[in-house]
Please model this.
Amino acid sequence: NAGVMQNPRHLVRRRGQEARLRCSPMKGHSHVYWYRQLPEEGLKFMVYLQKENIIDESGMPKERFSAEFPKEGPSILRIQQVVRGDSAAYFCASSRGQGAADTQYFGPGTRLTVL
Amino acid sequence: GENVEQHPSTLSVQEGDSAVIKCTYSDSASNYFPWYKQELGKGPQLIIDIRSNVGEKKDQRIAVTLNKTAKHFSLHITETQPEDSAVYFCAASPSAYNTNAGKSTFGDGTTLTVKP
Model:
């Protein structure tokens, strides 16, 4: 039973480019969460999605960041016109049930470096 | 919103000793409290969790206690081993029926070092 999968594991972008991070939830899970982790800091909630719906995006910066979880395929976190401050590890988690009260399982993360 | 504080930020113990990490939270609506272990370069892995209808839960060398009145919960690791060395995160999550159901709030982490 495969766990949460994220790709790429490492991503290097120059300032102004776009970054696309992918997350495939565990089999049977329809809820996806994205978190950002700065070096030596905790995880900060960004967005919670179900298939084709954004449930809670209160942690997402209002500009340049967007997320989707289409009916088919992985969830995508998209960062446009990246800046150096976007350099971080981005983790995706998935759960079977509704909301954060159901156990979340994390992927290995995508480490974004903006040059 | 929810605020989770975690202490200590670093903890060093001798192999075989016990380690205790404590977290406090602010939102009385939170009722699910997972603990994660993160090794270098990897994603957080769930090690134990507790829900608000339970005061204590144990899984081999790991135990978690919850005091809802005081709004704090703790992770206890007994007979520590070098492979327990990692960063540990606590989190607090609201009820699934809360409007903030998606938002888990994490502590800032505790770096545990177990010396052989």
